[in-house]
Design goal:
This protein is an all-alpha fold. The chain has helices spanning about 25-45, 50-55, 60, 65-70, 80-95, 95-110, 115-120, 125-145, 145-170, 175-205. It has one domain (about 20-205). The longest helix is centred in the C-terminal third of the chain and has 29 residues, at about 175-205.
Length: about 210
């Protein structure tokens, strides 16, 4: 994505599916991997709730582009790639919790799976609940099992994808442009779910770097 954001970045839901990385210079990749590993090790070893709070809320103060400069250009199935996607999910939700909660709630209604339980969502899931859920998923990266945090994010993305697609179907005749945007968003969430599922498998095999 060529557009440069100003800090702090505002990321409405309709920007989520469009945020892409650029080419991957070797030095950028090295820094991305080093910073991701250092962040995970430092926060976990410190185990200070205040530090975890600051790390989770980092993009609220500095903007999502601050992390994009480090991690957005890495492969999806790497540690920095996984962390980037988790931060991006949180940013998208917290910038537009009302629409995010509508999509999520619709997803729980149409999907008919255990994903809502895996994600750890409260029912019904309103704007406050989905913002808190996004925080808890990211917080789990630094306080619990990284694989479990990824599993929860996968389920979250599946529900968001199903919800966006279902709402797109409703909008097809009355607002085709809106329907198209929601369809693209659903596809992006579905793609992210697959990427994070791959990351979870690699993490459990000890090969997510």
């Amino acid at each position: 994505m060529s557009e440069r954001f100003h800090r702090p970045t505002k990321l409405p839901g309709d920007r989520f599916e469009a945020y892409q990385g650029a080419e991957d210079p070797a030095e950028t990749l090295r820094v991305a991997h080093d910073t991701a590993n250092a962040l995970l090790d430092r926060v976990r070893n410190g185990a200070d709730p205040a530090i975890i709070d600051r790390v989770v809320a980092y993009t609220d103060e500095h903007g999502i582009d601050a992390l994009a400069e480090l991690w957005a250009r890495t492969s999806a199935t790497t540690l920095p790639g996984a962390l980037w996607r988790l931060y991006l999910l949180r940013a998208a939700v917290r910038q537009d919790p009302e629409h995010a909660s509508v999509q999520f709630q619709r997803g729980t209604e149409v999907l008919g799976t255990i994903d809502a339980a895996v994600a750890g969502a409260q029912q019904p899931t309103g704007p406050a609940e989905i913002a808190e859920l996004a925080d808890r998923i990211l917080r789990g990266v630094f306080t619990g099992d990284f694989g479990v945090a990824l599993d929860r994010a996968v389920s979250f993305c599946r529900l968001m994808s199903a919800g966006a697609t279902s709402i797109a179907d409703d909008q097809e005749l009355v607002n085709p442009q809106r329907a198209s945007a929601l369809t693209q968003r659903g596809l992006r969430y579905s793609s992210t779910a697959l990427e994070l599922a791959d990351c979870a498998r690699l993490w459990r095999k000890g090969s997510l770097d």
